[in-house]
Every structure is written in structure tokens, then in C-alpha cells.
Specification:
The complex is a heterodimer.
Chain A (H helix, E strand, L loop, with lengths): L2 H15 L4 H17 L15 H4 L15 H4 L10 E6 L2 E2 L12 E4 H6 L4 H7 L8 H8 L5 E5 L9 E7 L5 E4 L2 E6 L4 E10 L4 E12 L4 E8 L5 E12 L3 E8 L4 E11 L4 E10 L4 E10 L5 E10 L4 E10 L7 E10 L5 E10 L5 E9 L3 H8 L5 H17 L5 H15 L8
Parallel strand pairs in A: 1-5, 4-7, 5-8, 6-9, 7-9, 8-10, 9-11, 10-12, 11-13, 12-14, 13-15, 14-16, 15-17, 16-18, 17-19, 18-20
Antiparallel strand pairs in A: 1-2, 3-4
Chain B lengths: L1 E10 L2 E11 L4 E5 L6 H9 L4 E10 L2 E2 L5 H7 L1 E4 L6 E5 H15 L7 H14 L10 E2 L5 H15 L3 E5 L7 H14 L5 E6 L12 E6 L2 E6 L2 H9 L2 H7 L1
Parallel strand pairs in B: 3-10, 3-11, 6-9, 9-10
Antiparallel strand pairs in B: 1-2, 1-4, 4-5, 7-8, 11-12
Helix pairs in contact in B: 5-6
Classes of the chains: A alpha/beta, B alpha/beta.
Chain lengths: 437, 249
Amino acid sequence: MELKDKLVSSFMAFENEVDVDAYVHGLRSDAIKIFEEKGFPTKKEEAWKYTSLNKILKEDYSVFPKREKALEYSEVRKYFIHDIDSYKIVFIDGKYSSHLSQTTHEGIDVCLMSSALSKPKYRLVIENYFNKAATKDSLTSLNTAFSQEGAYIHIPKNKLVEKPIQIIHFSTGNEAATMLQPRNLIVVDENSHVQIIERHQSLTDNSVLTNSVTEIFANKRAIVDYYKIQNDNDNASLIDNTYINQKLQSHVSVHTFSFGGKLTRNNLNFFQNGEHIDSTLKGVTIIGNKQHVDHNTLVHHIEPNCESHQDYKGIFDENATGVFNGKVIVEKEAQKTNAFQANNNILISDKATINTKPQLEIFADDVKCSHGCTIGQLDESALFYMRSRGIPEKEAKGLLMFAFSNDVLSSVKIPEIKQRITKIIANKLGVNIGFDL
Amino acid sequence: MLKINNLHASVEDKSILKGINLEVKAGEVHAIMGPNGSGKSTLASVIAGKEEYEVSEGSIEFLGEEIDELAAEERAHKGIFLSFQYPVEIPGVSVTNFMKTAINETRKAKGLEEMPAKDMLKLIREKSELLEIDRKFLSRSLNEGFSGGEKKRNEIFQMAMLEPKLAILDETDSGLDIDALRIVANGVNKLKSKDNAVVVITHYQRLLDYIVPDFVHVLHNGKIVKSGPKELAHELEEKGYDWIKQELV
């Protein structure tokens, strides 16, 4: 059976299993209809021109998480940013692991989507926010239809959350192929500040397809720093749909570090609903083999006096393919918008490919918008210069690539994340970055 | 120390060096002068091991060993240093981190441990004072946004850090004002000893007032056409290169 049919026919069974809540039930039923009608996106759609899901959809995925396999912290410690004190929301094969998690209800809610969807005390937040930022495209609708588990984070006003929150999804490979659909909701109220780290990690070589949806609401003057670490196994694919709804004077930054996985598609969408909003989108992609990473971004400038900063760097080796599709819309009312976009790429091998496409739709006349994309090779004269100082070719190349991606790291605010990413990059490039940053 | 025999080199099938013979002994300073396009910078790059140049004939010996087949970094490890005419900008790598990497990679190649951080800092402080380099300058990205003078001073700073046996200074005087020229020359002179050698490549005689050569060679059309004592540089300055060209005819 095709995956689409399998999912559609599983929907009833799924609805029977979960708590029936009239409000969410309505949303789910509408969503499955949209998915049934639209199906999985194909290359015929403009936004999917360079990314084909065909191959990964052929696997026979199990669409319901079967059983929870216990994991010891020592086995998976390395996937956490473990040298900092943090809240943790951990899932194993789609099911919550209380053993590995550290949640809280003291002043803030850092807990589970399943309880938020079923308990009356969260009802108001769910009705006000759940599925309100997400668009109705087929993949997001598919996730909405099966939305049941994920992270639920609500930070009431005037809270500075000192400990970062780590959301980690493990898949153990207890089935030959698993499909996961986590659903996260993050609401940050007035004047509050929170830092979140998200990671999807497969622990075996069995196939995993994750279709994740995250909605983030940054209310007035809220600050949200979000880090996505994508360094998964070769048979793990991720479609990450993230929707960020910002209110006036809020600052939201999303850093996406893509080093692993088979196919990764990031649909990152910012909506600026207020004045003096700042949105930052940064990414480093370093891939090889036949890996594929696609960054599909949207920044929608709706009101005046806002800024957006996009900076994506990519290094592509062997047969890797990359896509950057950056759309910026500046509405007629959004005067005095400052929108910057940069996408710089290095192709290491002759067989690597990058498709980069800036898309600016500007309807206001008093704005500053810039975009630039470059595709190049490593600078031969810089390599000779470094080698003439005694730095071997491999290290010289590594150092140049490291320097190239370093701009993006400079805005990471948690030093332990910066160190971790630095290590992953150094490892990926096969160099010993023997100096402090 | 350096022995070049009948060296022919070309780039993209264009022959540039057409039979160079040159011997440089420890403790000596050689100046190579010549008009634009005579092959001066090519000679420097070929000695340092730039791969795009093909050596079609002849050989380069350094400390009694043929180095034609060695990679640029291996030549550097043996003690060859090239001060670039146009130092390359490397955004994202600070001067300090670049030097730490260069020194530790060189030590690694020699089977030595990495230099302890404390010693490294001390060395950097010493050598930056020699070149009158401000501490803030060292944390900037290598050569990025440096003025012409700063770039050249930074080259000699790197030379001071690496303590090469043979230093080739390619047009180090170009783009330097008189103060920077004095600082750079002073740095080179302080590093000079009976155990190392310097080859100064220059278009003008100006730098040779400060770094006094033992020998002056004139390069023309890929060959050394005249060699002599330091006075030859003055003669060239007065008469220009046409004089040599006419003499050849």
C-alpha cells in the first residue's frame, strides 16, 4: 500500500486510540481531508522543484509508534548538550520518556503536547494558539491530523528562563522503518526569554521519516533563541515545518545546523505581526555522500519598522545536493523594513550540487532589502598561502571551510552549543581545530 | 643552502623561467632585481612550491636535497619562507590562530609536541614588539582590511615567528611608506644570522639601502643576465634596466 493510503486509512484507528476532544478532533478531521486531497508534494510544485520525496516515501513505514524501548541515559548522553543544566523533553520512537526527561510546571510549563491536548487547564492556550500559525499545506496538515505528542512549552509573561530547554526525539529502530510526526507548541508571553535546542536522532541504520511541526508564538517583547541540530544517521530523513508568529518588538532567532541525515527539508516560516520585530535565520550546512539538505525559508514582513537577517552557509562534498529557497515578502504597509539575505556556498567536489534561489516580493517603496548568493570553490591562492606557512593541505582546507562557516556560529549565544557545533564541524571536515574561538 | 641549476618553469604552457642558475649560501643576502615580467615573482613561487607552475627542466636543491617534488608545506617545514607580494586575505582566521596553527603543524611535522600556550603567547609578544605590531591587530582576521603596510609588516611578523632558514621577500617594499619600510627592514636585519639567508626580490633599489645585499642579480626574460656586488643595484637605479637590455644586444 502506498504511504499516503496507509496514512489515510490509519486515521480512524488513530482517532479511536487518542482522547477525543471535540476541538482538536475537528482540526484533525479537516487536516486529514486536506492531506487526502493534496497528497505528498511532488517536484511539479515550485517549492519542491529541487527536492524529491519519491525515494523516501517508498519505504514501508510503521506509522504508529509501537512500544517504548527503554534507553539508559549513558547510551544517549552524547546527543544532549550535557554540560549545561537544562530542562529536557525526550521522546523515544514517538513516545514520551519520563526517565530521560526533566520537565517542570513551576512558574512555566515545560511538558507534553499529549497532556496539553487532553487536560482542561491548557484548553485556553490550545484554543488560542494550536494550529494558528501553521499553514494548511499537505505535510503540515498530515502532521496536524496525527498530532498527539511533542513538546508543549508555555512561558508566562516576565520570565527569564535561565535553563535552556532541550527537545530530543530518539528513534531506536525497533521497526524496519518508522514514521514519526512530533508536534511542538511554544508560547512565550510578554517580556519573557527562552532558549530551545531541538534534535532528532536515530540510533540505528533503520529508516526513519520524521514529519515535524513546530509552532512558536513570540508575544510582545519576547525573546526566543532556537537551535536545531540536524546531525542524524544516513537513513534518517526529516521534514521540519516550523512556523513563527511574532508580535511587536519581539526577537526570534533560529539557527539550523545541518550535517547529517539522508534528506532534510526545513520549511522555516516567519510572520511578523507587529512593529519593531527582529527575525534572524541562520544556518550552516556541511554534507557529503548522497545527502540532501533543503532550506526553504519565508519571512513575511507585514507591519512597518521591522528587520530580518538571513545568513546561510553551505559546504557540499561528493554527491551531496543542497537547496536554498529564500522568500521574503514585504507588504505594502511594511514601510521602513530592513531585510537582508545571504546564501554562500562552497562546492568541494565536481559532483556536488547547490540550487539557490532568492525570491523577493516587495510591495512597499521605502525599504532596504538586499540579497546575495555565491557559489564557489575553495580559494586556491589562500590555500597556497597557508601551505607556504607549513599548514598541510588537508588542514588548510579545513581551516578555510571552518572560517567560512564561522560567521554563523558567532551569533550562537550558548557557549556549550558553539563548542559542540565547532567539534561536529571539525570532525566533519576532518581537521583538528587546535585553537580557541 | 639553496642551489638552483638550469631551472625552467612554465605556467599553462607559457615558458617563464628559462634556465636560472643561482647559489645562496648561509649568512648571505641576495637581491634579485629586474623589470616587470622578467620572472622574479615566478622564481619566488617556484621555490616555495606553488603547484600551478611546472618545472620542465633543471632542479632546486635546498640543504643538499632536491625539493622539486615536495609540497609547499613540506618546503615550509624544511625552513623555506616566502613573504608574499600580495598577501592573501583569510576572513574568519585571526592572525594569532593562524600563527598557532602554522607553528604547531610545523612542529608536528618534525615530530615535536605542540608548543605550550604560555610559550606561544610569549613568542607572539616578543615578535610583535619587534615589528611594532599592536596587540589588537593580532586578533583581527588575517590580512582582511589590512593596509598595504600592515600586510607587509604582518608577513615579516610571520617570518619572525617561523624563523626560516631561507626567507624570500617578494616585493616586500611595494606599498610601504618610509616608516613602515624602516620597521620591516629592521625586523629582517634583526632576524639575520650566519645560519640563515635572505633573498630580496625588488624592482627598486630603495629597500636595499636598509637590507644590504652581498650579491645583486639581474633577471631578464627568465634568465639571470648579470650578477655583481651591491653597487650593481645603484648602477641599475641610475641607468635603468634598458642599460642591461642594450648590453645584452
